[in-house]
């Protein structure tokens, strides 16, 4: 016999049902900001203080709108966000701490949610992104670096570099004029200069 109003089974923990935000929230914790050559701005914030952690990506048409938080579009993530970059026209790459990498379409009309065109899941969270001008980009996850090609419907991994760094890679940046060149820095106290054309692509110094 069940008693009305009783939690069943009796030892089941009483937990609140947490739901994602229905409207974008600019949280106190700001994780990244990026501007492109057209003056557009993207800003990532995350809620890391409450019970339910989530992130919000905002897109602004220009610096003035960003200053007043008058966003053009947004994306609400069910995870905290770690980085984002402009890529192609009207597209943004978003890295989430749950290991997902999303290609988002920025709508033409304001106050609308960005559409996720493609989503891939990695083995771990992406610490940072860097992009080239030819629809290629790189990510660092743990001690690995992945290089990708991207188009409007897919993200394809083409190269993975492992075992050059021995600890978490915290930063990566590309030479925008040469897709073979980029740099990385890691918690192993090593900064590497990379050239994919070389037999040993990474040269590094312990700092």
From TrEMBL:
GO terms for cellular component: methylosome. SMART domains: WD40. The keyword Cytoplasm applies. Gene3D superfamilies: YVTN repeat-like/Quinoprotein amine dehydrogenase (2.130.10.10). SUPFAM superfamilies: WD40 repeat-like. It is found in: Cytoplasm. InterPro entries: Methylosome_Comp_WDR77, WD40/YVTN_repeat-like_dom_sf, WD40_repeat_dom_sf, WD40_rpt. Signal peptide: none annotated. GO terms for biological process: oocyte axis specification. Keywords: Cytoplasm. This is WD40 domain-containing protein.
């Amino acid at each position: 016999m069940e008693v009305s109003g009783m939690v069943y089974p009796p030892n089941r923990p009483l937990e609140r049902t947490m739901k994602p935000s229905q409207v974008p929230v600019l949280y106190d914790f700001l994780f990244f900001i990026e501007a492109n050559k057209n003056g557009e701005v993207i800003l990532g914030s995350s809620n890391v203080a409450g019970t339910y952690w989530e992130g919000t990506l905002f897109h602004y048409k220009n610096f003035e709108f960003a200053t007043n938080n008058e966003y053009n579009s947004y994306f609400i993530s069910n995870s905290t966000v770690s980085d984002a970059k402009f890529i192609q026209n009207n597209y943004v790459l978003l890295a989430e701490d749950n290991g997902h990498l999303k290609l988002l379409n920025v709508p033409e009309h304001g106050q609308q949610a960005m559409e996720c065109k493609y989503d891939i899941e990695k083995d771990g969270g992406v610490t940072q992104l860097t992009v080239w001008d030819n629809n290629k980009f790189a990510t660092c996850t743990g001690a690995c670096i992945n290089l990708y090609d991207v188009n409007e419907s897919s993200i394809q991994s083409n190269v993975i570099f492992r075992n050059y760094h021995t600890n978490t890679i915290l930063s990566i940046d590309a030479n925008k004029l040469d897709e073979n060149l980029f740099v990385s820095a890691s918690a192993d106290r090593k900064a590497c200069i990379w050239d994919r054309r070389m037999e040993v692509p990474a040269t590094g110094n312990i700092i």
